[in-house]
Amino acid sequence: MRALIVFCHPKQDSFTGSVLATVRDRLDAAGVEYRVRDLYRSNFAPVLTAGEMDIYLDESVNTGPVAADVEDLRWADTLIFVYPTWWYGLPAMLKGWLDRVLVPGVAFLMPDGENKDIRPGLTNITRLGVFTTCGASWWLTRFIGAPGKRTLLRGVRLICARTCKTTYAAHHLMDSSSDASRKAHLRKVAARMDRLIGAPRAAPREQTA
Amino acid sequence: MTRAMVLFAHPCEESFSAALHKRVVLALEGRGWEVDDCDLYAEDFSPVLTEAERRGYHEVPDNTGPVAAYVERLQAAEALVMVFPVWNFGYPAMLKGFLDRVFLPGVSFRLEDGHVRPNLTKIRRLAAVTTYGGTRLRAALCGDPPRKCVTRAVWHVCRPRKMRYLALYDMNRADDDRRARFLGRVATEMETL
Questions:
Q1: Which candidate in B89, B141, B154 is best for mutational testing of the A interface (most A CBs within 10 A)?
Q2: How many domains is chain B partitioned into structurally?
Q3: What is the pLDDT of residues A86-96, one digit of tens each?
Q4: Do B143 and A54 touch (CB under 8 A)?
Q5: How many beta-carbon pairs under 8 angstroms link A with B?
Q6: What's the CATH number where B138 sits?
Q7: Contact B96/A89, CB-based, under 8 Å?
Q8: How many other C-beta atoms are found inside a 10 Å radius of the C-beta of residue B58?
Q9: pTM exceeds cut of 0.90
């Protein structure tokens, strides 16, 4: 198993940083090899430029500006996102990582003569984990439609392997969180991580007529 | 005179998004509205909320310091029109960063007992003009995050009287005819927004 953790928070000492530490701890405990892409500390540039847009569809060169990230993505079979939810969605930093790295030929295959529709490209990803924090309540997030969660767990999930296993945990109402609620959340993250990287799901039993 | 802010995010001048942007500005100006045309790429907006901004996020009113000019423009608006392409199931980072950095506590919302209360209620008209690579069905299967970002999240802090979400799906297979029809529809909707 090889995990790529995409971590996005401006403050390293934030609660999101503790979530990252928990995720790493569970991967360490299971002896899983992993890489951490810390977008803020590495000064990732999230703005897709006009130059990149010009070569966006040219699969022979479009990975050039983000070659290391594409290499990470192709190396991994497990993809984990750790970030705060802002405006019900991903921070611009993380959204920009998707914009620039999930290019045609990597994340999805564009329609061609034989295929009419866009096809998934991240079929090497068999596990997807999403860990976040929300200022809003669970209800308000639900009402808005949880765009951030859906961007990853449905959008990105659609371009992963067909049998991709997923997990998700969010601490809601962050602004009125307590020590106890934060600790409980970290325990939840640890448990969900263990399940995510645990034994692969048993093959579905064959249907008998 | 109604003052409209047009938020636009696309790097390329020759893109269909840029054509939509021009049509929107033209239609609004044609109504005699005062248009504040905010082209985020052209203005070289920085979408990254920094560590210092995160630490000072809840310090109303000092939190607006780093983006004071944008806050002023947003607060002057009586109509807000967002023009953008959907990339990977969401706003371009450029536009998402505008929300992260400018839609601050005390600007777009107030926190009362941990609850979000709308604070951009001067905006009486809200619209989005966008294009998707995927089909409507594909977007719906993902829960159509960008549609919800506009019609629920942004709506929630403005509570506009009128709202329009204009989307051209399945862009990669849209022929000249479909694109022209969409441009026409956008113009009509902007004239009646």
A1: B89
A2: 1
A3: 998 999 999 99
A4: no
A5: 159
A6: 3.40.50.360
A7: yes
A8: 14
A9: no
